[in-house]
Amino acid sequence: MEFKTFSNEIVFFDLETNVPNKTGQHFHILEFGAIIVCPRTLEEVESFTTLIQPKDLSVASLRSSRSDGITRDKVADAPSFEDVAEKIYGLLNGRIWAGHNIRRFDCVRIKEAFAEIGKAAPEPSGIIDSLGLLSDKFGKRAGNMKMASLAAYFGLGVQKHRSLDDVRMNLEVLKHCATVLFLESTLSNQLEGKWQSSSKIMTRSRSSYQTAQRAMPYSKGSLGKMTQNVKNLLSKAQGNQALQSLIKHSHSLLR
Questions:
Q1: pLDDT, tens digit (0-9, with 9 covering 90-100), for 142-171
Q2: Which of 26, 161, 249, 251 is catalytic?
Q3: Which string of DSSP letters, residue by residue, matches 84-95?
Q4: What are phi and psi of 118, to 5 degrees?
């Protein structure tokens, strides 16, 4: 079957897998989720998610510590990877791949899964790995830079570790980080020296469940409006080259 390519479209995707706990045990995909994002508007235009039944059901946990976690019962009647491989290929092939830590994990698992069923793996037109990108551009201000930490930093809720929820959270985290970097790069004189006097918001640590205060460079409730303004500016970015990073666009608009 012939597939079209969409070299300028971005597909955020995420995999949920088992956690190997025995010597020689491999990762098995238990869930795939993806959203296709228009590079001009940063709006979600298509989504897809599916649980996936591993060949060996015993790799899936009997129970999950999360209320909506993936268990053996949930994947027992799910389609196999081979059953959904064509759909996944069509979503990924020829698009810009985006995700958190996808270079070292999700991309590798996708190639392994396609190799296991003897089919060619999809190829990206570019990769946006938000872990490396934000570690470089945003720094360690959000702690360990895991998605859960970034989401907590911006008050986006608790990471659910379900594929579709996580990719949508990933997109929102990128928008928020881009907004802060945009403010810092264009309003540096106004913001300098005002960090300590800025308003504070309350956040809750997922690990300790203790409430703490943190100084932020914007007033409460204003970040969403600024994110929308930056998104509108980003939507005007045109060019023939593939989008290399959302952050790079936000910096280049005022040059």
A1: 889 999 999 999 999 999 999 999 999 999
A2: 161
A3: HHHHHHHHHTTS
A4: 70, 30
Type of residue found at 104: R
Identify the CATH class of 10-186.
alpha beta
Tell me the C-alpha distance between 244 and 248, whole Å: 7
28 catalytic per annotation: no
Q: How many CA atoms lie within 13 A of 76 on its CB side?
A: 8
Q: Residue 190: what pLDDT?
A: 63
Burial class (CB in 10 A: 0-12, 13-18, 19+), 81: buried
pTM: 0.73
Of the candidates 29, 26, 34, 25, the residue with the CA atom closest to the CA atom of residue 16: 29
The answer to whether residues 134 and 43 touch, using CB atoms and an 8 Å cutoff, is: no
Cβ(43)–Cβ(37) below 8 Å: yes
Q: In the chain, what are the domain boundaries?
A: 10-186
Q: Where are the alpha helices (DSSP H) in 140-222?
A: 147-153, 163-186, 188-191
Spans of the chain below 70 pLDDT: 1-7, 67, 189-255
**Pairwise CA distance, residues 170 & 163, whole Å:** 10
Residue-wise pLDDT for 99-149, tens only, equals 999 999 999 999 999 999 999 999 999 999 999 999 998 888 888 999 999
